[in-house]
Design goal:
N-(1-d-carboxylethyl)-l-norvaline Dehydrogenase, domain 2, binds 1,4-dihydronicotinamide adenine dinucleotide, 3-OHacyl-CoA_DH, 283 residues, alpha/beta, 11 helices
């Protein structure tokens, strides 16, 4: 296995909400980053998001040299550009078929001692790993949104993940300034197993007229000391991401994880939260 001391270049697959955040924190920690998405405008949007985030952090004095960090990130649509990566972190859409295809491709283009990590929120790391020739080097590195601001990273241990790979995942996250915890490869891991029912109950409470959306969020913020209520947090995560995660949990764990009807309807209407300008709130 290629150890942390040998990692210079990190490839990030997917330039969306999570991918561009992971690219940014890796470049901030001094790594060269190759960020890959499927279309040029998606790559550009990801790079733009990194630039605006870096300039906000620089204004607050939290990044010294935003241009130098930005210069370490190369955006691309070319899968061959990840061939020289010493570590890959995947953050593409939350669909097991897509992730398995991506991992099979990654295993064929990268050197065979390179760790392949997935940022999946709910899918089985074991099932994704089985699409590769190196399940022992596949691990879950579940970053939280927004990546540059959230301290925590959940390390997810697949059925065949080698203990050395697990240790490597913790060390890499710590190198990015994060703190970690570990979860077995069970649906939703620790965080989403507990978070998703909470979000869905917030959506149901709103749909059933228990209170206004503002009062549901305000009630949970003031009443339970969380920084965001369920509806604003769902908008922030992306309603499509919440729905996909809820469906996986429902399939695996049964009716207590059934997605809220209004969540299904919002996603069907294309109102995905902050990223499309409307979800439960307007942005
Ligand atoms: P997103 O929809 O913002 O971005 C996904 C990106 O992947 C899109 O730009 C899409 O074009 C790209 N993509 C799809 N197929 C690809 C391929 N074959 N190669 C390269 N790029 C490809 O989604 P988001 O929110 O960034 O989620 C990504 C992953 O992170 C998912 O697995 C999700 O469950 C997980 N996650 C999301 C969190 C959130 O709050 N949004 C939090 C933690 C994990």
């Amino acid at each position: 296995m290629r150890g942390l001391a040998e990692v210079d270049t990190v490839a990030v697959i997917g330039a969306g909400t999570m991918g561009n955040g992971i690219a940014q924190v890796a470049a901030t920690a001094g790594y060269d980053v190759v960020m890959r998405d499927v279309e040029t405008d998606l790559v550009e949007r990801g790079v733009d998001a990194v630039e605006s985030s870096l300039s906000r952090l620089a204004e607050k004095g939290e990044v010294d040299d935003p241009e130098a960090v930005r210069a370490r990130i190369e955006g691309t649509t070319d899968l061959a550009a990840v061939a020289d990566a010493d570590l890959v972190v995947e953050a593409v859409v939350e669909e097991v078929g897509v992730k398995r295809d991506v991992f099979a491709d990654l295993a064929s283009v990268t050197d065979d001692d390179v760790v392949l990590a997935t940022n999946t929120s709910t899918l089985s790391v074991t099932e994704i790993a089985a699409a590769t020739d190196r399940p022992d080097l596949v691990v879950g590195l579940h970053f939280m949104n927004p990546v540059p601001l959230m301290r925590g990273v959940e390390v997810v241990v697949g059925e065949r993940t080698d203990p050395e790979t697990v240790a490597f995942a913790h060390e890499f996250a710590e190198r990015l300034g994060k703190e970690t915890w570990e979860s077995d490869d069970k649906p939703g891991f620790v965080t989403n197993r507990i978070l998703m029912p909470w979000l869905n109950e917030g959506v149901r409470a709103y749909d059933e007229g228990v209170a206004s959306k503002e009062d549901i969020d305000r009630g949970m913020r003031l009443g339970t000391n969380v920084p965001m209520g369920p509806l604003e947090l769902a908008d922030h995560i992306g309603l499509d991401v919440c729905l996909q995660a809820s469906r996986t949990l429902h399939d695996e764990l049964g009716d207590r994880y059934k997605p809220a009807y209004l969540l299904e309807r919002k996603v069907a209407a294309g109102d995905l939260g902050k990223k499309t300008g409307a979800g439960f709130y307007e942005y």
